[in-house]
Design a protein that fits this description.
The structure is a single chain. It is built from 9 helices and no strands.
Length: about 200
């Protein structure tokens, strides 16, 4: 039932009905919490709770409820850290940690806490680098690394750090574009990153 509710939420969100999407996601979350309470050792159910928390957080963030969104993201992160520690070789679970850290960083940045945002983005980047090195042919890992670098550049403390992050991201995107591996929705990344680099003072 929770899967069906999640799909309803996805459809409502795609249609722009955030209130209905949030209601569906929160109902799915409640069901999944109940399942985990019944069987705390069920790892997949724990991960399902974290997925619901991310979706609830996204809806809260979209409506400007940043504090509730942050709380949801941080709870999801705590669950995902626990799962990742259990199986360090599970790429999906490691990626879940990186994604959750990005969301936490986004909320910290949105509330003006640049230091906390930077810390979250740096940790997310460290995980993304590890995964990208682990499988250099994995396009998702490479694009995840680009996103992490871009996020870091948005809160980096000085122009040199921003330039380094953006330049590395641009190199990766150009390489992926040259090999025809960029998704059509990602082809605008080159211009976007070049635009951010152009805003920086000359080195």
């Amino acid at each position: 039932m929770s899967i069906g509710l999640e799909r309803v939420g996805d459809r409502r969100n795609a249609a722009g009905d955030r209130a209905a999407a949030l209601a569906a996601y929160e109902e799915a979350l409640a069901i999944r919490r109940t399942l985990v309470r019944r069987d705390p050792d069920n790892i997949e159910w724990q991960r399902d709770v974290s997925i619901s928390l991310i979706k609830v957080g996204d809806m809260r963030a979209a409506t400007g409820d940043r504090s509730t969104a942050l709380a949801a993201y941080e709870e999801a992160l705590a669950i995902r850290r626990t799962l990742a520690r259990r199986d360090p070789d599970n790429t999906d679970w490691q990626r879940d940690v990186s994604v959750s850290l990005e969301r936490v960083g986004d909320m910290r940045a949105a509330t003006g806490d640049r230091a906390a945002a930077l810390a979250a983005y740096e940790e997310s980047l460290a995980v993304a680098r590890t995964l990208a090195r682990r499988d250099s042919s994995n396009v998702q890992s490479q694009t995840d690394l680009v996103v992490s670098l871009y996020n870091l550049s948005s809160v980096a403390s000085d122009a040199a750090a921003r330039r380094a992050a953006l330049s590395e991201a641009l190199d990766i995107v150009r390489r992926l574009d040259g090999s025809g591996q960029l998704h059509v929705d990602q082809r605008g990344w080159i211009a976007a990153i070049e635009g951010e680099l152009a805003k920086l003072p000359a080195p």
